[in-house]
Design a protein that fits this description.
Its EC number is 2.4.1.293. InterPro entries: Glyco_trans_2-like, Glycosyltransf_2, Nucleotide-diphossugar_trans. It comes from Alienimonas californiensis. With about 300 residues, this protein is α/β, with parallel strands linked by helices. It folds into two domains: about 210 residues, Alpha-Beta Complex (Spore Coat Polysaccharide Biosynthesis Protein SpsA, Chain A); about 80 residues, no CATH class. The protein contains 14 helices and nine strands. Helix 6 packs antiparallel against helix 8, helix 9 packs across helix 12 and helix 12 runs antiparallel to helix 13.
Length: about 300
Amino acid sequence: MLFSVVIPTYNYGRFLRAAVESVLEQPGDDYETIVVDDGSTDDTPAVLEQFLAELPQRVRDRVRFVRQENAGPSAARNRGAAAAKGDYLVFLDADDRLLPGALERLRSYAADGGFDLIFGGYEAVTPAGRRTPRRAKPLRDSNLRNFKRFLRRRLGSVRLGAAAIRRSRFMELRFPEGVHHHEDVVLVAQLLATGRCVSFPEITLSALKHPDSLRHDLKGLESASTAAAEALFDPAVLPAEMMAMRREYQSDFFLTQFGALARAGRYAEARAVYRRAVREYPRHLLRWPKLRRYLRIVFK
């Protein structure tokens, strides 16, 4: 088995069928699909059961359904990975879709067998149907440079659904279960820092942006605070020269939180978080777009 596609879901029954279909439409017989229901209270189990009943037995046998008490997306992904049989893991969000040929593109690199992380580009899709392509940028031949570029957002965003992670390496790292935002950043950064990685520009994933996902972003940012930095900058995982970026990363996280709070009209909280970001890493005061937004809300 080459790929295990793990789909964590929580109250996304309305999206789930399309996500699973996008996997089963991929050519080949070297992959399985594992849906992990993280304690949904909607119709998720019924949606999947009805969908599977419509499939031929040979296709249905390649889909497994795991249900657990609500423990968060990191725990759900880890649960799916523990049940997986594939050499590589693809973590597909329940509201995302693999595009035609996605696994074939990943397969061409996975055949090498030596990559810990393989990733391509994706398209962001708004509720109105507007599509914005985000192509993966090429990696350098230095783990340190790739680590820095990724955390400084010069490498772009790496969507897990457009990536394949070698399972043996993943089981050594896993998603940090105490982190409910940026948990994907933690894992990808550690892989870039310590593994053999490759990227390709082609787009293999459609990522849907919708009101629920945006609300989750703000809620997750509020709850995460310093947890992501603590999980990422683990001296047992990262080389010493990479640990020096912790304050810069923590400040950047606060700036992300600042922007989300400002957009939500929570200006007093936003101002406090911005000041915290600058105290953590004073050079971020030079980020003019963030400073300009802060000055606009000083008296709001």
